[in-house]
């Protein structure tokens, strides 16, 4: 894993992105260089057009979910996503290179090369997601511990990356019983440092069930670090592996003294400017969609097209969120707040569709323009549920240290949830966002939101 702007990315993903982008630029420049009569002065123009197309393809592939680290995706689904990318990529390549300031013959050749490169990128995306997965170089990880905590760490790592190379588990000094498979236990080869070096370990995850009475060999762990072996605790392991902050394995000290939670005046100001620009642009572009939605809602059932409901925002301030009405007007006729469920019978037919593709969220752009919400942030909850969850879930109030968002890390990462347990799971993603939020992460979330909308698999 590589950390970029406080967000962890798979090293293999970055390599794939650079390979795809480089392939497009190389293809168009190579065609020009192969033509003896082509003037060298046009190479900068060709390269700049190639970079423009490469950037557009990065956005398309990201929005199609082709760079997501998913292991249970079928070959058919990957091909479908690649075909969707081609539907946008090929016309885009033709449009960009039709503006190339060269003679028609060379322009046609370079345009063909660009379109061929786009097709090659899509083939590579499918190959890398399936046939190429077996050949990836993996980090060699030693889990220091053999109890229940170590077992959880191993299971999490394997679920997040089935090809992760766990060299084994090394029992701690005071761990008397083991809960991991016996064949995965490693016999110490001298000190912890000697054992790690002899196994060629790249990273050690400290997952000891017992940390008192000298269970933590700090000097040996420091020696491992001095030899270039990364040493991480459980909380950091979950943060980078799952892009979550597991509240069951974190304490206030880790949150306080660790890095992150950097809001800052400059960051806040830039985010606000981006919110205004993006929300205004999206609002204008989606006006026809919103108009059609309003008509369909009115035709299907009596009642207002929009509904407003009090939600908790930044620093606990209450505001009224604006959304398209997707439920019957008597959804809470008894006056008692209820969680929305996956197959909620209160949802209308039109409402079920607009919730699936998130059209019902579009009026929240007005909240963004008002400054009550941001484009990206934790989902705003109702005061009734917030009061209940603050008492039941540690650190729940931390999510109110940033503005709520139209979309967010938890919303693109977690399936539909309507229980306290689901709220805990979502909170762990929200904490990760609050701790590591940056404009870079906001961009990734917005791109993943597009993928969620296209596939209709978003959490609500």
UniProtKB/TrEMBL annotation:
Belongs to the bacterial sugar transferase family. InterPro entries: Bact_transf, EPS_sugar_tfrase, Sugar_tfrase_EpsB_2. The keyword Membrane applies. It comes from the Bacteria. The lineage of its organism: Bacteria, Pseudomonadati, Pseudomonadota, Betaproteobacteria, Burkholderiales. It holds the Pfam family Bac_transf. It is found in: Membrane. Its main location: membrane. One of its GO terms (cellular component) is membrane. Residues 271-454 form the Bacterial sugar transferase domain. GO terms for molecular function: phosphotransferase activity, for other substituted phosphate groups. Keywords: Membrane, Transferase, Transmembrane, Transmembrane helix. The chain crosses the membrane at residues 12-33, 45-67, 79-97, 109-128, 276-297. This is Sugar transferase. It is a multi-pass membrane protein.
